[in-house]
Design goal:
The protein has 134 residues and is mainly alpha-helical. The chain has a single domain, classed as Four Helix Bundle (Hemerythrin (Met), subunit A) (Up-down Bundle). 76% of the residues lie in helices and 0% in strands. The mean pLDDT is 92. The structure holds fe (ii) ion (2 copies). The site of one fe (ii) ion (FE2) has 6 residues, from helix 1, helix 2 and helix 4.
């Protein structure tokens, strides 16, 4: 397995941990697809699936942050928007024929998990827990 979820990734809110786990799972399938030399279309579809799930997850986080008046909402949303644009751009370029991208995409996803999930997301933990979000 390419990415293994462990408690170190927990943001202390079960709903979001479950969604993060699902993101890991899709990224792992993408990675496995590259190793299996899956056809371009199949990999493009996985990127599409990832994109869709990322949107669902970002919306879920943003809804809770907004509902409770999280002070760093704008900055957090900005990071989400920038990342969505990046993945969308990857998917478009990949479908247009830039095969070399797979390595770049994976690197970028892992970097993002490290900086956003392990950094920015964890900043909301005390605030949202205090508001009773689970
Ligand atoms: Fe997140
Ligand atoms: Fe986030």
């Amino acid at each position: 397995m390419y990415l293994q979820w462990n408690d170190g990734f927990s943001v202390g809110i079960k709903t979001f941990d479950d969604q993060h786990k699902k993101l890991f799972e899709i990224i792992n399938r993408f990675h496995a697809g590259i190793l299996e030399r899956k056809r371009k279309e199949a990999l493009g579809n996985l990127l599409g699936e990832l994109m869709e799930y990322i949107k669902i997850h970002f919306e879920a986080e943003e809804t809770e942050m907004k509902a409770h008046g999280y002070p760093d909402y704008e900055q957090h949303k900005k990071e989400h928007d920038e990342f969505l644009e990046k993945v969308n751009n990857f998917e478009c370029r990949y479908r247009a024929g830039e095969e070399i991208l797979t390595v770049e995409v994976l690197g970028s996803l892992v970097e993002w998990l490290d900086t956003h999930l392990n950094g920015t997301d964890k900043l909301y933990t005390p605030f949202l827990q205090q508001k009773g979000v689970k």
